[in-house]
Amino acid sequence: MASLKTLKGRIASVKSTQKITKAMKMVAAAKLRRAQQAAEAGRPYAQRMEKVMASLASKVVVGPQSPRLIAGTGAEQTHLLVVCTSDRGLAGAFNTNIVRAARKKADDLIREGKTVHFYLVGRKGRAVIGRLFPKQIVHQHDTGSIKQVRFDDAQEIAQDLVQRYEAGQFDVAHLFYAHFQSALVQDPVTQQIIPVSMPESSGAAATGVEAAVEYEPEEEDILAALLPRNVAVQIFRALLENAASEQGSRMTAMDNATRNAGDMINRLTIQYNRTRQAAITTELVEIISGAEAL
């Protein structure tokens, strides 16, 4: 049985930890509000960009002269997995779920005989992926200096990816991040960003409205200019969704940790009181026995 001094020390230690987790929960809650607003504000822009791309793509015939970002390389052998995680831990299963989705995609592609490489954004995915795929990491993009996600941050990543694509380093790129739904739910997402996966055009074309639109310059010229920007927009959305998901997951994790610390303090306090009562009883018995011996 633990001594009273040991129990008292453990209670003090858990109380100290509880204060830290409670403070971290409050900080995450404050950051979550801003991150959630940014993620929700960025969604319509990214969705509208996809619709514009679909409208333009429906008016061109994809061929050898089309931009490579839409036409592809003509092969699907080498796949680049762009895995976006956070730089900090203590965020529950946020990073684990993203890395698990990337691992599953990598395993599926390898079974199909494809070549897989990893482009890591953030530090928390490096340990697991570096252990399982040590020779397949082609780049590690550090986001530790980013306090608030900006479009310039996404554009920097997008430009690097497009340059690697144009240099023939990969054929297909997949983006992995967590879609924020609530502080309790963040769904891992897998999205093909290169070549651009065009959604099916909406029913607006059937109404005749789309047919009345004339583009200047030509559709292919507009596509060539917008395709790299679309990659940046999709990465920007992923970074915004990740920022909100990270804070939501951390807030939930710290709330659970605070509750667990409270439960542990209660159990230790009960054990401390019982041990103390047993010690007092033992001492009384010894006193009584000594008095009777006199």
Description:
- The longest helix is centred in the C-terminal third of the chain and has 75 residues, at 219-293.
- This protein has 294 residues and is of the alpha/beta class.
- The chain has six helices and five strands; from the N terminus they run ααβαβαβαββα.
- α3 (94-111) links the parallel β1 and β2 (115-121).
- It has a five-stranded mixed beta sheet with strand order 3-2-1-4-5, sandwiched between helices.
Q: State the strand order across the main sheet.
A: 3-2-1-4-5
The radius of gyration over CA amounts to: 28 Å
Tell me the number of helical segments per DSSP (H or I, 4 or more residues long): 6
Low-confidence stretches: 201-211
Helix content: 55-70%
SS-based class: alpha/beta
Q: Hey, roughly how much beta strand do the residues contain?
A: 5-15%
Mean pLDDT: 85
Q: Roughly how many Å apart are the termini?
A: 32 Å
Q: Number of DSSP strands?
A: 5
Order of helices and strands: HHEHEHEHEEH
Estimate the global geometry from the Cα principal axes: elongated
Note the main sheet. 5 strands, mixed
